[in-house]
Each structure stands twice: as structure tokens, then as C-alpha cells.
Amino acid sequence: MSNHPPVLNEDLTHNPGRRKLLAGSGAFGLAGFIGGGISIPSLAMAKSVPAGSKLLGFDSIPASTADDVVLAEGYQAEVLISWGEPLVDGAPAFDPDGKNSAADQEKQFGDNNDGMSFFAMEEGQDRGLMAINNEYVNEQYLFAHGDSKAHDLEDVKKSQAAHGVSVVEVRRSKGNQWEVVRPSRYNRRITANTPMRFSGPAAGDAALHTDADPEGMNVLGTFGNCANGKTPWGTYLTCEENFDTYFGTKEADYKLTAAQKRYTLNPAGPERNWPDFDPRFDVAKNPNEFNRHGWIVEIDPFTPDSVPVKRTALGRFKHENAAVTVAKSGELVVYMGDDERGEYIYKYVSKDKVDQANPAANKTLLDEGTLYVAIFDGDTGGTPLKGTGRWVALVQGQNGLTADKGFRTQADILVNTRGAADVVKATRMDRPEWIAVNPHDGRAYCTLTNNSKRGDENMPLNAANPRPNNVYGQIIRWDEKGDATAQAFNWDMFVLCGNPIAHPQGVNRGTPNITEQNTFNSPDGLGFDEAGRLWILTDGKYSNKGDYEGQGNNQMLVGDPQSGEIRRFMVGPKSCELTGITFTPDYKTMFVNVQHPGEEKDSRFPNNSPRPRSSVMMITRKDGGVLGA
Known about the structure:
Layout: H1 16-23, E1 70-71, E2 75-82, H2 102-105, E3 113-120, E4 127-134, H3 139-142, H4 153-162, E5 164-174, E6 177-180, E7 188-190, E8 195-199, E9 218-220, E10 225-230, E11 236-240, H5 258-262, E12 296-299, E13 309-311, E14 319-326, E15 331-338, E16 341-343, E17 345-353, E18 369-378, E19 386-393, H6 410-415, H7 417-423, E20 429-430, E21 432-437, E22 444-448, E23 474-479, E24 488-496, E25 523-528, E26 534-538, E27 555-559, E28 566-571, E29 577-583, E30 589-595, E31 615-621
Parallel strand pairs: 8-13
Antiparallel strand pairs: 1-28, 2-31, 3-4, 4-5, 5-6, 5-7, 8-9, 10-11, 11-12, 12-13, 14-15, 15-17, 16-20, 17-18, 18-19, 19-24, 21-22, 22-23, 23-24, 25-26, 26-27, 27-28, 29-30, 30-31
């Protein structure tokens, strides 16, 4: 065992001797298929791993396949709220037979909770608001009939009511335990049919016009809400991800536009059959409705009657999360990933600066600014898994984004952000998911969850995505030297995930900070705590065999950014994803979402429920201490 950080995380710029050692140490036969001649030295895959982190105050736990939450010793978990629980005044109780109506569901906590944020209330540390995404539904549990498709408009309305966002007031009950406040004037459901408005450069653009909204300024609903962000002025950012899977048509001769194809619209086979009964989602009848989704939506949780706002300056794509930080010079910066194979990483920098003393003055910061996309280049000295990068502005008239390329206005770029990123030749990534900013040094970390198509003819390897058929994923990080507005950066790989149980040698073993004790695949959720611990949540394969032998159910791990050590902290129940981490201000209570338990395997989570229910879990230390310390 060694207390040294992983070799591939070392900065070799000022250590030429170490660089020569790496360059001459051979490889696992990878030079032939890792692009640009890049190879991963065998020294980098040595069994020596980082250990002894002073930041991680718990022992790593084994993998689990149990239908329950398993935690590090000294920790405990309780359910805060589950899908279908009464939330808004007048809401009925959850019907375990699935017989709640669409009207019932509009007042109940939504399904498949994902990203979320905790907002402390002015009354002190004993009350707070939580804004919680409800990404999608599991129809076989949502509907009493148990089918995977809606049978009628009532089914569609119920599904739409289970999507969106739930705003929940909570209060400290005892110790570090919290409970939902009922009734509360703050409790609120925002669904796929909630009125909203557009703002920013694309608001009112012709691409957003519909018969129901001929001015392109008002829109109904949000859905596919994956992860999130939190602004310095106390509002919530919810991110619309897989919006394309809700649109379709039965018109056999419907011809997709180039932009619709670029956004992977499959008109004949939407994942949810809303178009069968709700014409708003029929692209033959309402083609522009498709353009009105795929945005970041700002919600004020403290004003229950406020109208959510779709902020078009942040671009339109399959938004995963919105990692918000304030630059040293005062501008608001938002990092974003587009969660699809071969898509891009973006950054938004506001024109004006954050006014900490006057929150009302910040309302336009998300409307006026510059959207950038990232290019990741390899290391000029040939060192693998590190390099340099730059941000390219997506501004009309610059970098080839001209009328002859289809970008007559800035609105054209924002509605078709993917197309604009294609033109500037941004780096195609392995499904960029959550991004988190280290509060101590400003480095941004991004989960690249997996990419089975990497290495195919249409998706060649590159320095930042060097592994073919990438079933495990990786976490990349970039350093802008303390200036979040910078247009250049250095990057390296915090971890290349793998499985030394299934692959003792080779590229699928992973970097040295992957061991038989912490092996995992498909990093997804990501978040830092105040002390700088990096919490990693997974949404991957849980077969526990083949490539995934010994990895068990999806899990949450904690990494030390300095040493590189990673320890397994929590494992979820069968067939779930763990996601949506947020903390109370004292960091003594953590909230984590168990999403879609029982999606593919039988589950009775939580509490032996006859229908598995996505739930918000409340994690605390039995001794009342700070989590992870």
C-alpha cells in the first residue's frame, strides 16, 4: 500500500524524470487502439493504490445485492418522503393498488426523484425548503392496470402529474432528523402542465411559436427533469434531459428535420405514448412544441405562486445538471453537460456580476451572457489521461456560426445548440453527466458515465475519452487556475473506473485508485461537501456478473481529491439508482434519492411496500457528527 496519489493524477509538468519513467514503462497493448498514439503505461495500472486519507473518516463497505440501503458503520438512514405521499393541501393518501387519479397525483409527491437542493429558511437552521426533481415514471407501478403504456388521456395526465418538481418544506424534528411539514404554504407541485414563460435571447423566436402560443413566450410544463443547480440568490435550476422521448406521431410518412434528428427524435417509438392521447406531443400536429423543451428552468421555491422561467441563454440540449459558481471577478458561471453518447460539455458566463447585497438585481444574469463549449486536447508531451483545453464561444457570427451554416441569429444557436457545437468541432465526450466544483480550489469535476459506442467508426477515441466500448466510465476534471471565466484550462483524469475483479490487467482494470474493494461502474451524480470530500453516485449495471462481477447494486462512494483515494459509503436496494445529493447547512444531515427501485428486479423498497417507490433518504451519523468526517 502507498500513500502516494495515483500516478495518472500527478502533475508531471515540473517532473521530467517522472515523465520519462512513464513514457518508457510500456503499455498493455493499447497503443494500437487509443487515438493519437496515446497509450496507458503499465506503471499507471500498478496495484499500488492511494490510502490513508485524512479526509475520509469511515471504512469502506463491501458491495451489496440486498433490497435495502446499506451504509458505512456508524451511519443510519430513514425515509423522508416517497412517491405518492400527500404533499399539497387536500391530497389523498397513496393508494398501494395504483388507483390514485391524475388529480390526486397533482397533489402528491412526484415519482422517480432525482436532483435536489436544500434551501435554509430565514427562521434559522431548523427549517428549510427542498426542491426535488421528479424525472420520469415507472408506468407498471404508476397505473393500476400495470401496463407499460398509457391506455387513455387520464393515464397520460396522471403520468404528466407525476413528472416535474416537488417543493417540500421540512423541519428538524429531533437531533439531526427532519420531517415534512404538512400543511405548508410552500409545498408545491410543478408538473408537465404547469404554466411557465421563456426568457433570454430565444424567447419569442419563431422556432418556439405554436398555435396555442403564437408569440413563443409561454409554455406548459417541464419533464425529464434530471439534475439541478442552485443560484446564489436562492432559486432552483431544474434541468430538462430526455425530453425527446415524449414526442412522436402515428403519421407513417412524417419526415424528420435535420435538427430533430440531431436531437434524436424517434417519432414512431416514443418511450412514453403521450402523443397517442395528447396532441401537444404529436410532432406532426405541433412540430415546434419539441423546441420548447430541453432547457434549464429557474424556480423560486420561496414564492409559491411564482411562474417558472425557461432560461434560453443556457442553451438547449439534454441538460444533466447546472453546476453554479461565482467567479473571483464576480460573474456567474454555470457548467453543464449534455447527457448522451458523444455529446459536449458547456459553460455559461454572465455578462454582469452577481450582486450579493441585492438578490433582485440578479434576475437577468441568466439571460445575458456567453455560452461556451469545451475542446479537450491531449498532453503535448504524450502523457496519457491529461492535457489542455479551451472554451469556444457559441456566438452568432463567430467561430463559423454564420447564416450560411444555419445560424442567422443567436436564437438559432440556442435552439440548436448541438448543431452549433458541431460546427466549432467541440470534443465528443462519453455522456457528460453531473459537474461539481471543488469549493477549495475551483476545479470542476465531471462524470462521464459510459459509452458503449466509443471506438466505433463514427465515434473515434480521443485523449479525454481513450477507452473503446467504455462500459465503466470515468471522472474528468479541469483546472482554470482559479478563474472560472478563463477560456483555457488544464485537465486530467481523477479516476478511470474499472473492475480489477473481472479484469485484473488492462485498460478495464481502471486507474490505481480503483480496487477490488471499491470497484464501480457508471459514475453519475456528483457533489462536494464543505470540507472538499467528493461524493460519487452511480447509475449503472447491477447484474453483478461478467464485466460487473463483484460490483453489486448501485452505490455512493466518497473520494479525496488530493490523495485520489475512493471509499464505498452506501449501497442502494435492487435495481435502483442513487442520485440527488444535498446537505443541511451544518453538514450533519445528507439527503440522497433512491430512484426507480425494482425497475428490473423485484423490489419491495421501502418498508416492504407492495409497489416499489422512489424515496428521499435522510442519512445521519449515529453520534450526531459531520458526515464523512
